[in-house]
Each structure stands twice: as structure tokens, then as C-alpha cells.
Amino acid sequence: MSDTEMILSLKDVQRRYSQPVDFVERIGRLIKGGGPPRSVLAVAGVDLNIRAGEVIGLVGESGCGKSTLGRMLTGILPPTGGQVLYKGVPVETLSGARRREYELGVQMIFQDPFSSLNPRMRVLDIIGEGPVAHGLIKRADKESYVTGLMQKVGLDPDYRFRYPHQFSGGQRQRIGVARALALKPSVIVCDEAVAALDVSIQAQVLNLFIKLRQEFDLTYIFISHNLGVVSHISDRVAIMYLGRIVELADTDTIFSRANHPYTQALIKELPVLRTGRRQFDPIKGELPSPIDPPSGCPFHPRCPKVMDRCKVERPLLRAIHTGTVEHLSACHLNQETP
Fold this sequence. Notes:
single chain, 338 residues, alpha/beta, Rossmann fold, four-stranded antiparallel beta sheet, 12 strands, globular
């Protein structure tokens, strides 16, 4: 599929953060001689194509770079390397009407449903301010427009004059969904959108996402650390580890024929309802620091199938043979196994 058929694409996208140098370190540099400041490569070269109308789940442990990637997709953070493309055109080259189309067309729902809402604003203004400011609706139509959106996300329109602190967590997340929908986007990046909610409320919000996708023909990038949640909503799943995608396939393939040892370990950690005892086998070790990542394959210090090659050579994300299904994995075992 060509770049022009993709609504969003990432080409070797990177995001690097420089470590601030304190006074003691500055003195040490003067004595021992200068050197490059320490930096963190939060996203270490990601290639990803997102088709219009699909839901792609982005999964990984905390600190793997998935939220940073989501912020680069929406333009909140600029990449320090590589390119983000919108409908085949690099975002940094967009201007005029095309730039406006991208900025309004790609919206984000944040993880914390409380801190992402202005506590001094009423719901009417939280949802209605954006479309009025961008000329999507007239100010005189704001109240009726907000009322309609609140009904679509399952909120009582009579609550439109309330403040965020007067709502529960699930209701606040629905306000965040309505605020994103208010700008009539084609793509919504959901950053851990249900992680802060109770399990029963998670199911309600997930069902809401599914309903809105069908009604508004939306494309979702659904970021989560929970594979179980992602399985209910995603068409494809990308597994991230230490700033890189290590496996990418459709949801059924990921759960039935996971290839990468990290993906297999994540699936083994999922709780299941079955008779008899099931031994819990967590992933050994901690996620390495992105300041000093391991050489070779970043997962090798925790991998039960590690080989000598894994410690010195980083595997590339390659297609593996699983019939007609697109299945990419970054593991040396695929080349070692006939």
C-alpha cells in the first residue's frame, strides 16, 4: 500500500531528550574535559503505517515510548529524527489549509481524565471553545452543538454548566472524548484512555469508542499497557519495547501466533478464566534504562531464548512467513530457525 493511501505514516521517527547538566557535573566536565551531554532516546526509530478507518493498538510496558510516539503523531511533540506523514505528505512541510486539516483532524484523548480538563472552565466551554475558535460553528450555536455531543458520548446535557470536579472519572473521560470529537477529527490518539478507570467503567468507555468509530468513521491509535483491553478494539497491534516496535500483526495473529518472546511473555501474563491452577510467570527483570540501553537486542537481558548473537547485534523488524497475513517481528530466532 502506497504512502498516499495511509492517513498517517511514521518513517524512522525518533525522539531524543537531553539530560540536563547540574552544577557538580558541569564542574566535573571542566576538570576532565568536555563531552556530549547524556541523552535519552525515548523513541528509537519507528516505522508505522496507519490506514484510514482502522484501529491500531500500541502496547508496551511503562517507559517504552508509546505515549511519546502518540504525542508526535498529533504534533504535540516534534520528532528529533525521521518524519511524520499525513496523507503521504511530511507534516513539517504542510501549510495553509492542509496544515489546518492535519491539526484539527488528528486529536488526542489523554490518560488522566482530571488533569487534562481545565478545572476553572465549565463543560460547555471545555467542549465548545475549540470549534468556536476554529470557526467550525458559530458562537450562537455552541450550546446546541455541545448538547448534541454530550448526548452522543452518554452524558446528560443538563450537566453542561458543571465543572470537572463535579463528575466521576468515567464521566470526565467522556468529556475528554466529546472535546476531541468537537473538532470533527478523522484520527483520534487514545493515550491510556481507560487505564485510570474502574474495570466496569472501562468496558463502557471501550463500547463507546467502538460505537463512535462506526458513527463518525474514525481512525484510532489506541495506546495501552494492557493487551487484554487492546484485543477488544484493535484491528492490528504493534508491540513496543524500549523505543522500538518489536512485533506488528493483526490482532488475531498476535494472540494466536505471537512470534517475539516479549509478546509471548505479555500474553502469558494476561489473566484468564479457566478451571485448575495456573502458575503466574512474570517477565524476569526490569525494563532497562533508555539512558544506557543494552547492546544488541534490547530485550536480551530478560529473554528466556537469548543467544550469543542477541547480545551484540540488534535484530531488524522483518516480515515473517505466516501465509497472507502481514506479520513483522524483530527477533534473531526467525533467521536461526529453518
